[in-house]
C-alpha cells in the first residue's frame, strides 16, 4: 500500500472541499451589491503570491443548546493570515459575508484574536476587512465573549502596531467598537455602514424612518460623526488607498517610518509662498496650497478630509521622510478651533507621536468658536485635548505661524512654551491676546465713543495695535518664537529643523499614564 499517495489524496480532497463552499452564485451575489468576496479583497491587498492563510479548515463551534442552526463550513466565515504589502509584513483578517453572513461566533473570534496576537508579537500592522452581520445569535454569550477578546487585543496593541479597519459591508451593534478602537477607519460609499442600533430599532423606539445610509453610511460617518477617516466609491479604490496609506507608516512603535527616494522636484526656495497670504487679514485662502508647496510633490495624504474641515490633518513626506501635518484652514469658519476640530487634531497628534512621526503645524487661528452651543457641549474640555496631545508628544514638533495666532488658540497650536521644538512665523503673522478689532474696541472704548470721527480713529488705532502689539517681530525679540522667516525658505527651514531633531530624545516622567480630558 502506498501510504504517501493515500495521504496526499486526502489532502487534495480537503483542498477541493474548501473551494466548493465558495459557489459562483454567492460570489455573484456579492458582486451584484458592488462588493468583492473576502478572498478577492485579500488578493487585492497583498503583494501577489505572498499571502499565507492560517486556520483555513477550522469549523464552527457546536451549540450548547438546540436553538437555530449553524452552517457547517470551513473557516467559520473569516479568512486570516499574513503576507507582504508594499514588500513589508502585514497581518489581516477578512470577514466572509457568503458564510453565515460573516457573523461572529467563538471560533471566528478566536481566529481573529490569534492573528491579532501574532501581529503584536511580530511587530507588524494588522488590517481588518469587515463585512459581518454581527454577533452570531445561535451561539449566544459565546459570540459576545468573542468580541471582548478582540476588543481587548486591539487595546493591548494600541500605540504599538498600526491597526486599521476597512468597512466593506455591515458593522452593527457591538461589532462597531472594533473599528472605533483602531487607529484609522476606511469605508466604501453605499456598500458599507456602521451603527449601534439599526433602522428597525430606531423605527420601533423613536418612530423615525431612516435608511441604512442615512443612519450609518460612509458619508454620515465621514462628515458628521467623524468615525470614518477615509471613504472611497468602490472597494478597489479603497484597498489601493489603504496600501498607499500603509507606505507612510512604520511597522511598529520602535521603528521609524519608511523613507522613499526624493525626486528633488520640489524646490527648497519657493517665491510662490510669499503671495499666498492675502493683504486683507479677513480674507480666506486655502492652507492646502501652503502644504503642497512645502512637502514633496503629490505626497500629502489627507485624513478625515470631510470631518471638521476647519482643521486639516494628514501624512506627507519631506525629502522622502514621513511627517504629520496639522493646519488651521482659513477657508472654513475662518480656521477657528471648535469641539470637532479639537478632537480630530488631538487624536491625529497622538497617533503621530505613538509611531515616531514628526509633526509640522501650520497656524492661522483667530481663536475658539464662540457660542452657547459650543460652551454647553464642552469646548473647554475638548479644546484641552489639543493642549494635552501637543504637550505630551515627544516627537519632533515644528510650528509655523502663517497669519493669526490669537489668545488661547495660539497656545494650543504647539506654542513654544507648550513644548514646540522650532517655532517660526511669517512676516504676515499676528500674535496677540486677541484680534485688533476686539482689542481696540475694549482698550479704546471711551475714546471711540467720544470721537467726532470714530471710523478714522479706529483705523489709526488698528494700525497702531498691529505695529506695536500684534506683529511677529515683538514675539521674536521676546523669544516666544525662534525666528521670523521669509515664506520662500519655509521648506528649507523645515528640512533643517527636522535634521537637527533627528536624534531628539525626551525623558518622560515615570507614571502609569496621564489622565487626558476625554
Q: Regions with pLDDT < 50 over 5+ consecutive residues? A: none
Question: What average pLDDT do the residues reach?
Answer: 92
Number of continuous helical runs:
20
What is the CATH H-level superfamily of the largest domain?
2-enoyl-CoA Hydratase, Chain A, domain 1
Number of domains: 3
Structural class: alpha/beta
CATH architecture of the largest domain: Alpha-Beta Complex
CATH structural fold name of the largest domain: 2-enoyl-CoA Hydratase, Chain A, domain 1
- Report the top-level CATH class of the largest domain: Alpha Beta
Binned strand content:
15-25%
Amino- and carboxy-terminal Cα gap: 70 Å
Characterize the largest beta sheet: strand count, sense, and whether it forms a barrel.
8 strands, mixed
Tell me the overall shape: elongated
C-alpha Rg (nearest Å): 27 Å
Oligomeric state as shown: single chain
Number of strands: 17
Percent of residues in helices comes to: 25-40%
Summarize the structure.
The chain is an alpha/beta fold.
What would you note in describing this structure?
- The protein folds into three domains: 24-246, 2-enoyl-CoA Hydratase, Chain A, domain 1; 271-433 and 471-500, Alpha-Beta Complex (2-enoyl-CoA Hydratase, Chain A, domain 1), CATH 3.90.226; 436-469, no CATH class.
- The chain contains 20 helices and 17 strands.
- The protein has helices spanning 3-20, 24-32, 38-45, 106-122, 141-157, 177-181, 199-206, 212-216, 218-225, 235-246, 287-294, 339-354, 372-376, 379-392, 407-412, 436-443, 445-450, 454-468, 472-478, 490-500, and strands spanning 52-54, 78-85, 88-95, 126-130, 163-167, 170-172, 184-188, 193-195, 230-232, 301-303, 311-318, 321-328, 359-365, 397-406, 422-425, 430-432, 483-484.
- The chain is elongated.
- The model has no long low-confidence stretch (mean pLDDT 92).
